[in-house]
């Protein structure tokens, strides 16, 4: 039986789902997520009123002294896949590290759904933290769980910080449809070039769960 650490969390954002989806692509940078160094779009497609996106995030990878014997690098690439469905008003993301999975494999899924007659948004987050290093897996998973919990809190604070900066400053509010269509139109030409430059990297992601899902949807 495979052992792992499981993380479950529900959070309520005091912003409507339309506001949350409008700020989704503006989450980084923010003061609470300085460990996120870069973000690149590998692929994006809009099918009907559903937007599918695959991004590569690069994050810092701070480790305790004992962890340096297993991983020497200080940055870690992470694959983030998302589905934004305007009709069902649901954002789903699936995130996982793509290197050093034997040492620590972290798989996270998050959903954002309307709550309380659409005036708030319910955020449901789940994660699995696994290690396959014999004799050290328990310690590595415990460390990974605590770090994930800390970073999850930072991610929520960062998202709320961006939402507050946009809406509490009384900036113009776009509908979720306008926001998604504008993002798609502004970037679709860029993604042609991105797809060429990232083709080799993208091949390694072809079997990821959300990618398989959206190929069937398309």
Automatic annotation (TrEMBL):
One of its GO terms (cellular component) is mitochondrial intermembrane space. Coiled coil: none annotated. InterPro entries: PRELI/MSF1_dom, Slowmo/Ups. It comes from the Eukaryota. Residues 4-171 form the PRELI/MSF1 domain. This is PRELI/MSF1 domain-containing protein. It comes from Argulus foliaceus. The lineage of its organism: Eukaryota, Metazoa, Ecdysozoa, Arthropoda, Crustacea.
């Amino acid at each position: 039986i495979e052992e792992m650490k499981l993380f479950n969390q529900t959070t309520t954002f005091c912003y409507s789902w339309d506001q949350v989806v409008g700020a989704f692509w503006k989450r980084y940078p923010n003061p609470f997520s300085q460990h996120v160094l870069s973000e690149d779009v590998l692929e994006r497609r809009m099918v009907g009123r559903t937007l599918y996106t695959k991004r590569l995030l690069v994050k810092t990878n701070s480790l305790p002294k004992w962890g340096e014997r297993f991983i020497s690098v200080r940055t870690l690439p992470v694959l983030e896949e998302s589905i934004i469905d305007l009709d069902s008003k649901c954002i789903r993301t699936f995130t996982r590290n793509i290197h050093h999975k034997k040492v620590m494999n972290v798989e996270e899924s998050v959903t954002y759904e309307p709550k309380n007659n659409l005036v708030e948004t319910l955020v449901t987050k789940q994660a699995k933290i696994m290690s396959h290093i014999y004799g050290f897996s328990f310690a590595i998973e415990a460390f990974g769980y605590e770090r994930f919990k800390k970073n999850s809190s930072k991610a929520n604070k960062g998202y709320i910080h961006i939402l507050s900066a946009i809406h509490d400053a009384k900036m113009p509010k776009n509908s979720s449809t306008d926001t998604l269509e504008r993002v798609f139109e502004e970037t679709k030409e860029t993604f042609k070039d991105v797809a060429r430059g990232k083709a080799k990297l993208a091949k390694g992601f072809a079997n990821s769960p959300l990618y398989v899902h959206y190929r069937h949807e398309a």
